[in-house]
Specification:
By secondary structure, the protein is an alpha/beta fold. The chain is built from 7 helices and 11 strands. The strands form 2 sheets. It has a 7-stranded mixed sheet, with helices on both faces. It has a 4-stranded antiparallel sheet with strand order 6-7-8-9. It is globular, with a radius of gyration of 18 Å.
């Protein structure tokens, strides 16, 4: 059985390789990630009017945060991540581009205590880092607390198929890149929907040679589980299976706070 302490480890999964984060994700997903980002930003700008505010939970180094700030819509963006090192990378990128409309908050979703917003994002499997039902309940309650009435919540969840692929390996010998991700059920009977996520990587980027190894707990949440919690928090489902955003074996969902 997994423990709450193991979930705490997942909070800091990217600490040791934050400065290599963008390089690793580019090598892992290539142009597909850039395409997904553009389409997600397009969907958000369609939903959110000019001058509105957006909370990007699990913002990382600004995959969505920065292009939304540069969309010319005057958005006020609150970037939230439990990893301070990733937020530091985001801040550096904002300084280089002269972006001033992004505020950063080092916090778990359940502990964010900044301004409310008109839209909340939790994408690229952010919710799967939450491995206990109590923590998920606290997180969704806090999202609801900081989402204005009529505001939207967009999140994604991986297909069950993803959890039945035990090992994924990505290699790029020309750039000296190697990454392997292993998923192992926490219980032999596979009754516990939690998995040990073991990520091993090495490569060479602008910062030099690097390598890291992480092992933490993720959880396979179903859309029905999340929807039930959200309905109890006065959300309604606006759209599920946002087709053009469904890549990397995930489904996107859109809810609205009543």
């Amino acid at each position: 059985m997994h423990t709450e302490n193991q979930y705490q480890q997942a909070e800091f999964a990217h600490n040791s390789w934050a400065e290599h984060y963008d390089y690793v994700y580019h090598q892992t997903y290539g142009d597909a990630l850039e395409s997904l980002t553009k389409e997600t930003v397009s969907e958000v700008t369609r939903l959110v009017k000019e001058g509105s505010s957006i909370i990007d939970y699990g913002c990382g180094t600004g995959r969505l945060t920065i292009p939304l700030a540069l969309a010319g819509k005057g958005y006020k963006i609150h970037a939230v991540d439990s990893c301070q090192q990733l937020l530091n990378e985001l801040t550096l990128k904002c300084e280089k581009r002269g972006i001033q409309d992004i505020n950063t908050y080092p916090a778990k979703i359940s502990e964010y205590d900044g301004p409310s917003a008109d839209m909340a994002l939790a994408t690229l499997l952010v919710l799967n880092y939450i491995s206990t039902r109590d923590e998920m309940q606290r997180s969704l309650e806090n999202i609801a607390k900081h989402l204005n009435p009529g505001g939207h919540l967009m999140f994604d969840l991986p297909l069950d198929l993803v959890f039945h692929i035990p090992t994924v390996t990505v290699k790029n010998p020309l750039e000296g890149f190697y990454r392997q991700v292993e998923l192992t059920p926490c219980s032999e009977e596979n009754a516990d929907p939690c998995y040990s996520y073991h990520d091993t990587c090495k490569g060479i980027d602008e910062h030099g040679i690097f390598g890291y190894e992480n092992r933490f707990i993720i959880r396979r949440w179903t859309s029905d589980e999340i929807e039930k919690m959200l309905l109890n928090l006065n959300f309604e489902r606006v759209q599920d299976n946002v087709g053009r955003l469904n890549k990397f074996g995930v489904n996107y969902f859109l809810f609205k706070r009543i």
